Amino acid sequence: MSTQRKIQEEVDVLEKETIQNEIVLFNDDVNTFDHVIDSLIEICDHTLEQAEQCAILVHYKGKCTVKTGEYKDLKPRCIQLLTKGLSAEII
């Protein structure tokens, strides 16, 4: 009788847990739809359709998450949005 030996390797998988932050854009009575759309395309790498949808959500709902990611990536983007006169914050 032969004995089969099964060797099972246990592999530890380290998962890097990253905290996802969001840039939230808020509605205002100053900026035009075109300015908001152009800014989102330029700064947040949105497609035209994404930028239009976000602009509409901001207008009707008062705010919209426009970018999600790590804080170090979002901070310069948020600063650029603020520089363009938009109202945004990282949460």
TrEMBL record:
- Tell me any Pfam family this protein matches: ClpS
Q: Which keywords annotate this record?
A: Hydrolase, Protease
List the Gene Ontology MF annotations in alphabetical order: peptidase activity
Which InterPro entries does the entry link to? Answer: ClpS_core, Ribosomal_bL12_C/ClpS-like
All residue ranges annotated as the Adaptor protein ClpS core domain in the record = 20-83
Q: Tell me the SUPFAM superfamilies matching this sequence.
A: ClpS-like
Gene Ontology annotations of biological process type: protein catabolic process; proteolysis
Task: State the protein's name.
Answer: ATP-dependent Clp protease adaptor protein ClpS
Which species does the entry assign this protein to? Lutibacter maritimus
Q: What lineage, starting at the top, does this entry show?
A: Bacteria, Pseudomonadati, Bacteroidota, Flavobacteriia, Flavobacteriales
